[in-house]
Structure formats: C-alpha cells, structure tokens
Amino acid sequence: MTQDEISTTMRFRRYLRTCDKNDLEITGDTLRLITGFGTDDTIDFFKGTIAHKSLFLKLVYNEDEMHTPSVYHVYDLKLDDFPIPEDETTYACTFIPLPIVKTKHHIYKFEPMITPRNESMVHHILVYACGNASVLPTGVSDCYGADPDFALCSQIVVGWAVGGGSYMFPDETGVSIGTPLDAQWIRLEVHYSNFDLIPNLIDNSGIRLYYTPELRPYDMGVLQTGVFTFPIHFLPPGADSFNSYGVCNTSQFHEMNGTPVPDMNVFGFLLHTHLAGRGVRGVHYRNGKQLGILCEDNKYDFNLQETRGLKNVIVFKPGDEFLVECRYQTLDRRELTFGGPSTLNEMCLAFLFYYPRNNISSCMGYPNIQHVAQELGQEAADAMEGMMAINMVEWNNVSIKKAEKACKEADQIILIKTIDELVRNETGFVRDIIDTETPPCKDMSRNTPAPPPPERHARYLAATTVASKAPSAKSNWPLSALLFSHLGFTWLLTSPLGRL
Question: Is 75 a catalytic residue?
Fold first, then answer.
C-alpha cells in the first residue's frame, strides 16, 4: 500500500477463479466493487465510509499499451446550446460535416463530452455515417418525430452510453475519412432522460474525435445486431427472468453490399439494454454449429455501458450467424414493457466493431409475433393483431415461461440494412446455446503468493513493511476496515476519500 497527499493506493494479485468458497470468480462480466474504511478495526459500513462502483476487470488492453500517433487532430461533434425539453425522453438529432481533409486520415479514438451537471440527463450519444447521396435537413429536431428525414443515416461510426469513457481502436484499424468512398456528413443523436422534468437546462454534449494522417492497415466498421427495436419486442410484467432473442444471418451480405464482403474481423463490442436488462450475450455460429460465445455480460449494469475489446479477434465468414440473447427482470413492473426508444421501454442490442469495413449497417431480428400470440391462446390473423393480442394475456409464472418459449421457437424475421438505406427481409430461427465450460479453480492454500512484478518491487517492499506490523491474517486490518467484493487481479484502487 502507498499513499500521498491525495490518495491511498492498494495493489494486490489474485487468481481469477480460486477454490476458496469465499472468493467470487472474476469473469468477463461487470463486477461490483465495495470499499469501506473507518476509524478503528470494526467493519461497520453504516458508521464508517463506503463507496461502491461497477467495474470491468478483465481489460484486454488500455491506451497506455497502444500506439498514439505522433501527429493528430481533434474534432468535436456536438449540440450547441440545446435546451433540454421538460420531457422524460428526448432524442435530439442534427447533421454535422466530418473534418475536411485533403488526403485519407483515420479516426483512431473517440471520447464523450458531457456538459457538466447534465451527466444524469444524457443516456447515450450515437454518431451515424450518411451516404453521400443523402439529402439532409438542417437544424436540430426529434430524431424519430414528424420529420422522417431526421432519422436518415443508420451506419454507426462510434457510440457512447451511460458509464462509458474514451475508446482507442487497436493499432490495426481506424475509421476512414477523406476518400471518395467515405462519408462526408454524420447524424449526431443524443438521447436525454429528464425523468424529473427539470426546466431550463442547456446542453452542449457530444463526441470528440481524434484523427491522424498516420494510416492504419484496415478501415473499420460497426455492425448493429440484436432485436429490432419496436413494440413486437415485449417483456411480460412480474418476470424474475425473461429472455429475448435477435438473429443475424450474413448470407445476404454479399448481394446487399454490392461486392463480395471479405471476412469480418471482430475486435470489440458494446452491449446495450435499458433498465430491465440483467444480462446480454452474443453467440457465433457457422454451418449450424456454435463456434463460441463471442461476447457476454451476465451481470449487466445499465450504469456501466462501455466499449470492450476481445482477447482474440473473431472472424465472421459469409453465411455465419450471430444470435443476441438478452435476459431481463421485471418484478417491479405491473404492465407490459415494449421495445422502444424511451429508457422505460426496452432494447436488446450488440454493436460489433470489426475490420475491414463494408456497407452493411445493421442486421437484426425479431420473432413472428403472430405465432407467439397463438401459442399464448390468442387469435391473431397478422402481426398487428398479434401485437394487440399480447395485451390480452393474463400474466403469471406459467404464461411468462410459455411466452419465452414461444419467442425462442418462433421463426425470426431478419432485417438487414445498408448505409444507403437499402433494406432486405429474410427469415431464420434461434439456435440452442451451449454454455462455456468453467475452467478449473486454483487452490490458493497449496501455492506460495505470486511475486510482485519487478517494476513495482520497491513499492511492494514498502507496503510489506507497513503490513508486517499488523495482526495476523485472521484479524481485521489496523487503522481501517476494508471489504472488497468481486475484486480483480492486479488492480489499482485509488481512493480520494481519505488517508490511512
């Protein structure tokens, strides 16, 4: 442990999965950290000081380990003095030109710019590339309101959601700008959640782009997958657990792209649901067989939505399928929850970051709602009647499980969309998911403690000197009571709350 005038830092190591029943496994899920300290050795958080935070501990890499260009420029995409309406949900959209450059450049990093004191209002920010043939409106308006032109442009360039931070792309890739094939304009979408109807709020939030003339080997793209967001996606009330499914089949990508689509190298992802979401995972299939679970977060936290890198690049070949499964809990709800834009509606999305770029912007599915309604004992001659019939179901544990089973077994309608707004429908179905095998645990009682890394040795010795004056391991820590839950290995904890 070390300290300075501002903070106290504790560093430790631990196996991801130990055989100690009191050690929770460190996984690729969002984990919760709890810390606390007081004036004596008594662990009593109600009388001491506590802090808690959601964290992703299995980072593949961080910016310090990546290549920062020697020459770079900064460009801001943001709203200007936008008055946040006194409404629970607002989607504000405007169209902004990308940087004008004479030669090809790569965007290699982005970060959010959230107006101070508006942090609780801004739900997400998305940047969509516009096809160069698009005729775009001016000003700021409701993205999905009366003027459909403000919903133009659907190929995501970058995105941010609650709890996320900056993100630097791997050294192999970046977003291309400056060539005839690149977008010249983007649609900026900012989603506000003003639940308390606070008046007179002005916002200048947006996304800051970092771009460079030092080119990377590949141009990157983002593919939006999951459940198509509209009311056919529904969640029953009072459900302890309810799964939704969205299928993407890439077999039509060649034809829709206009040219053969090369293998897609997926290197990162962003998972997104709203308040009822408890878990999300994306599963990769080829020739009907599961290749693996590409991404998952079984302890999803709405307040920590961040872009995460994959340990290994996953290759998507033409014809591969991708299934997104979202798990929800609605015990606190008495009415149906439908898919939609409001934070009180729901979404089930997985954004895949990949290279090299193609023209496909989204590939999402949804169940045949007519089949689902009929399985629930309701009459439905078409999709519209099926949606209406869902409202007539009496929800209990039996009907909830029956609805989940029907949604999984129903044919999926798959919508594929390109950057030029071309749309194609096809059908698919939800395949079974094979859970990943859990690796064996490490018996800590039979191993000596791992030595500290060389560069930290001096600091470790200083910390050991302090710790050696403490009671045995069976006693509480002196001076401070610290409790750590869901901890990670080799993690630096810095607390501005006080000094030991």
Answer: no
CATH 3.30.1660.10 fits 224-440, yes or no: no
61-219 CATH? 2.60.120.310
Q: What are phi and psi of 339, to 5 degrees?
A: -65, 140
Same fold, 61-219 and 224-440: yes
Mean pLDDT of the chain: 85
How far apart (Å, rounded) are the C-alpha atoms in residues 143 and 140? Answer: 9
CA distance 159 to 221: 12
% residues pLDDT > 70 (the chain)? 87
Taking the model in full, what pTM does it have? 0.83
Residues, the chain: 500
Which two tokens mark 424?
Answer: 């194609």
Tens-digit pLDDT profile for residues 185-232: 999 999 999 989 999 999 999 999 999 999 999 999 999 999 998 889
Active site residue 91: yes
> How far is it, in rounded angstroms, from Cα 477 to Cα 228?
52
Q: Where are the domains of the chain?
A: 2-58+463-495, 61-219, 224-440
Which one from 124, 272, 274, 486 is the annotated catalytic residue?
272
For CA atoms 465, 466, 472, 473, the dihedral sign is negative
DSSP 191-229: EEE-TT---SEEE--EEEEEEESS--SEE-EEEEEEE-S
Beta strands 122-129 and 185-193, pairing class: antiparallel
CB 312 within 8 A of CB 191: no
pLDDT at 478: 30
411: DSSP letter: P
Identify the helix (H) or strand (E) that includes residue 424.
strand 423-428
pLDDT at residue number 453: 52
Is the pLDDT reported for residue 382 higher than 80?
Answer: yes
Alpha carbon 7 to its chain centroid, in Å, reads: 30
